[in-house]
């Protein structure tokens, strides 16, 4: 039987590519997404559709409430930055950073992995074309992996050795897109925008939209979301 793995699936193009990689290398993935109180919920529908279409073993949607803490443009009444240059994006940690979000998500993924008898967790963090989030760095992932093996029954008893996989961490957005297309990812099912409208259509101007546009341009292919007339 194929080994189980937990894949954090946000509905974005990075996590969709990670799911494709996980399937390609022979895992049976359980996908995990989070209804965490984000202002944009279209990503939850995209994650579910991607998991079903790509053939994950199971899809789980976990509800938690980070909105009660706020502190982010994604969970609070704070304006999402738009029209920023690459230099402005990298100058400081942006207000779209959700306090401790990846730590919260990976903790749930760890619990899901231990309960399912899985040792492997896949996450689409990236340290090249990203918005400067501190919980997307290699040193953070290494520290969490060490903690995971200290904090669990399976880790302490030695029945499992947990591994956090970050296959995209040193890839540009263009490289990620090319890899996904090679693996057959349908990027028309993905969503990247931080500030979609009421219909779930992307704004085309936030940091995430701009990084997506840059990635497709550098990859030399058209974004299928734009082709369908959804994005500006």
**Which strands sit side by side, in order, in the main sheet?**
3-2-1-4-5
Annotation, overall tally of beta strands = 5
Structural class: alpha/beta
What's the architecture in CATH terms?
3-Layer(aba) Sandwich
CATH class: Alpha Beta
CATH superfamily: HUPs
Task: Tell me the span between the first and last alpha carbons.
Answer: 45 Å
Which H/E pattern describes the elements?
EHEHEHHEHHEHHH
Query: Roughly how much helix do the residues carry, as a percent range?
Result: 25-40%
Unreliable segments of 5+ consecutive residues: 227-232
Strand content: 5-15%
Question: How would you explain this protein's 3D organization?
Answer:
The chain has helices at 13-24, 42-54, 86-91, 101-116, 138-150, 153-157, 173-182, 207-219, 224-227; strands at 4-8, 28-35, 58-63, 120-122, 163-165. It is α/β, with parallel strands linked by helices and 232 residues long. The radius of gyration is 17 Å and the shape is globular.
Keywords for this entry:
Rossmann fold, 5-stranded parallel sheet, single chain, 232 residues, globular, 9 helices, 5 strands, alpha/beta, disordered C terminus
Compact summary:
The protein is an alpha/beta fold. Helices cover 40% and strands 11% of the residues.
